[in-house]
């Protein structure tokens, strides 16, 4: 287990003082009612009635009605609670009976359990089980919020000036810059969050105590030339300001100590803000987010207490706001969705500004913090803070093979769809495998966090976000209701249309949170019948299809076919780059019947994604 994932595993041991919700006007929540368990092929589908004020729900399972009931662990390595129903238990062994209970999840953890319900998964039949996707092209369209491309994570920006050979002999600075350009151009990313604004190569303390930002200038000049916007993470601590100069993290020795003198921390944040304004313009910097620290609820990232973090936050936000109140500042930038309620309560009690709450989670869809942010706004009379998930991904563990897998592609789409109504930003961590936290990549496919490999090959997770960006948004989002075996938990869909209705895009996927299925599970494969209504009667539509699955847009499978070792040779690089694409397949045209309905059926393996574009001829 890596240093970071080990810290996550025991983060609850130092959770600090969680919110009990009372200061925000949120009391103890009841257990969910209306729990049901439906027997599905390869899974049990759990549903329940949402509980007002809940951040999420924790599903429990037992072999008997009497218990004991234990939380279902889908092996994602972080928060196990899900934000909403339905939930598919794909850990269930077909033919074996189970009992399920559901607990409401709040900032203090799991609440009371619901009544128990029985369920059993079915074995696979001779053919793939079926689902339907009903798309209404004539329905009023709504906005599809770009929660997936507002922000992305990246390694510290100083890699843009790296002047030594990197992993596999790569040009780190060149490839890092190219990676940022790729996510900007192909996914539409607008801002980038990276660690280490105050690393030694970017900020130093002179002998007279003043700050030298010349290193930061070189890095930010190169970054801003990409046209992207920085998320200024106020971390880590300069050595001259630290109470414990030996308290570091990562191979690059980021210093994560409390300050020796709190006023000096305020000076640093204030002078940074002034310097950025003077160099890049007051109005420009007013549009950037400033985030205070990174995951202070983990010992590996902070040697202080929760109270110390609140002080760190308050000193920083008052320093930045003292220069320009327009700049958005927030936190707690916490691991595993921790400390959010406590920070809001601290800010309420001490009249401290908070423009956004930020936190992280991995291996699951993000929780719904709207009950807390809305309660904070009502209690204080201030604007409701935005909700920014500034780190999110399929795993918190370095060098985990799931990061290179197809499994991660539908996982990304499930998380993004879940976040559409509950967050302002869901930032994938990270853009590139040019990443050195626990050492440089030892081989091309090493389970790196990046959407792009060293060499900037596109992994299946990249294509998931790319396909989101390909949805036709000029006319907006239209209903895409999924029914059948695993609907809403395994198989989900989004659909959009052009303003004139001539083109309809349907994005559907089949995935599970259960990481024991990294290599896929035939019992979860589905045949999807897509029925599009509201079309012009009799109109013929061409159909374009794109697929992400084990045999399509899976660059790691290409590498395996080349019998690759650790790093490609020149000939292998040429073959990999030629295969680094998402081909468009032309399917048979479909004709809308007299009622304006067109129907087509496609294979949808687990894990797998289908993108369909129906265009009127």
Question: Could you explain the architecture of this structure?
Answer:
The protein is α/β, with parallel strands linked by helices. The chain contains 12 helices and 30 strands. It has an 8-stranded parallel β-sheet, covered by helices on one side. A 6-stranded antiparallel β-sheet has the order 22-24-25-30-27-28. Strands 3, 4, 6, 7 and 8 form a 5-stranded antiparallel β-sheet that branches. Helix 7 (340-350) links the parallel strand 18 and strand 19 (356-362). It is globular. The termini are far apart.
**Biggest sheet record:** 8 strands, parallel
Q: How many E strands?
A: 30
* Rg over C-alpha atoms, rounded to the nearest angstrom: 25 Å
Strand order of the largest sheet: 10-11-14-17-18-19-20-21
A few lines on this structure:
The chain has 617 residues and is α/β, with parallel strands linked by helices.
Strand and helix layout:
Layout: H1 3-9, E1 36-40, E2 43-47, E3 56-62, E4 70-71, E5 87-89, E6 97-106, E7 109-113, E8 117-120, E9 129-136, E10 151-154, H2 172-187, E11 191-194, E12 204-205, E13 211-212, H3 214-224, E14 229-234, E15 248-249, E16 254-255, H4 262-280, H5 282-285, E17 289-292, H6 306-323, E18 328-334, H7 340-350, E19 356-362, H8 370-380, E20 386-393, H9 408-419, E21 425-428, H10 460-470, E22 476-478, E23 480-484, E24 491-497, E25 503-510, E26 526-533, E27 540-548, H11 555-561, H12 570-579, E28 585-591, E29 598-604, E30 608-616
Parallel strand pairs: 9-26, 10-11, 11-14, 14-17, 17-18, 18-19, 19-20, 20-21
Antiparallel strand pairs: 1-2, 2-5, 3-4, 3-6, 6-7, 6-8, 9-23, 12-13, 15-16, 22-24, 24-25, 25-30, 26-29, 27-28, 27-30
Helix pairs in contact: 4-6, 7-8, 9-10
């Amino acid at each position: 287990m890596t240093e970071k994932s080990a810290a996550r595993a025991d983060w609850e041991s130092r959770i600090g003082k969680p919110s009990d919700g009372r200061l925000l006007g949120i009391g103890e929540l009841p257990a969910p009612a209306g729990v049901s368990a439906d027997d599905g092929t390869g899974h049990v589908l759990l549903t329940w009635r949402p509980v007002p004020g809940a951040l999420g729900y924790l599903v429990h399972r037992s072999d008997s009605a009497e218990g004991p009931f234990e939380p279902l662990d889908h092996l994602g390595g972080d928060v196990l609670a899900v934000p909403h129903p339905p939930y598919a238990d794909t850990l269930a062994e077909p033919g074996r009976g189970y009992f399920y209970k559901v607990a409401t999840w709040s900032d203090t953890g799991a609440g009371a359990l619901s009544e128990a319900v029985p369920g059993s998964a079915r074995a696979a039949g001779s053919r793939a089980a079926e689902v339907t996707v009903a798309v209404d092209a004539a329905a009023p369209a709504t906005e599809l919020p770009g929660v997936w491309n507002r922000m992305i994570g990246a390694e510290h920006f100083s890699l843009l000036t790296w002047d030594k050979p990197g992993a596999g002999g790569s040009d780190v600075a060149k490839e890092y810059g190219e990676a940022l350009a790729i996510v900007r151009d192909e996914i539409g990313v607008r801002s980038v969050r990276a660690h280490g604004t105050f690393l030694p190569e970017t900020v130093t303390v002179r002998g007279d105590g003043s700050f030298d930002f010349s290193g930061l200038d070189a890095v930010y000049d190169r970054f801003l030339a990409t046209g992207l916007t920085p998320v200024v993470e106020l971390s880590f601590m300069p050595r001259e300001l630290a109470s414990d100069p030996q308290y570091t993290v990562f191979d690059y020795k980021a210093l994560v100590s409390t300050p020796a003198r709190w006023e000096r921390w305020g000076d640093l944040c204030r002078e940074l803000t002034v310097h950025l304004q003077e160099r890049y313009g007051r109005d420009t910097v007013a549009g950037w987010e400033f985030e205070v620290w990174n995951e202070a609820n983990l010992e590996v990232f902070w040697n202080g207490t929760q109270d110390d973090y609140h002080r760190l936050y308050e000193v920083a936000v008052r320093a930045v706001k003292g220069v320009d109140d327009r700049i958005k500042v927030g936190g707690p930038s916490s691991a595993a969705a921790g400390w959010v309620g406590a920070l809001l309560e601290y800010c309420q009690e001490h009249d401290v500004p908070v423009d956004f709450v930020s936190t992280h989670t991995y291996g699951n869809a993000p929780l719904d913090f709207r009950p807390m942010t809305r309660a904070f706004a009502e209690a204080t009379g201030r604007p409701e803070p935005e909700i920014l998930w500034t780190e999110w991904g399929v795993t918190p563990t370095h060098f985990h093979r799931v990061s290179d897998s197809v499994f991660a592609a539908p996982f990304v789409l499930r998380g993004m769809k879940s976040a559409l109504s509950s967050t302002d930003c869901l930032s994938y961590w990270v853009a590139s495998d040019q990443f050195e936290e626990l050492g440089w990549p030892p081989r091309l496919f090493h389970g790196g966090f990046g959407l792009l490999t060293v060499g900037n090959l596109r992994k299946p997770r990249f294509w998931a976000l790319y396909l989101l960006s390909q949805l036709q948004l000029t006319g907006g989002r239209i209903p895409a209701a999924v029914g059948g075996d695993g609907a809403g938990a395994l198989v989900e869909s989004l659909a959009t249309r052009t303003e004139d209705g001539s083109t309809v895009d349907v994005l559907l996927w089949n995935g599970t949170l259960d990481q024991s299925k990294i290599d896929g599970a035939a019992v979860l494969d589905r045949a999807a019948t897509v029925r599009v209504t509201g079309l012009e009667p009799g109109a013929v539509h061409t159909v374009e299809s794109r697929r992400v699955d084990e045999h399509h847009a899976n660059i790691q499978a290409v590498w395996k076919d080349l019998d690759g070792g650790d790093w490609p040779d020149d000939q292998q690089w040429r073959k990999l780059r030629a295969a680094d694409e998402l081909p468009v397949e032309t399917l048979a045209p479909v004709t809308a019947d007299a009622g304006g309905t067109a129907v087509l059926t496609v294979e949808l393996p687990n894990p797998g994604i289908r993108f369909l574009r129906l265009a009127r001829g």
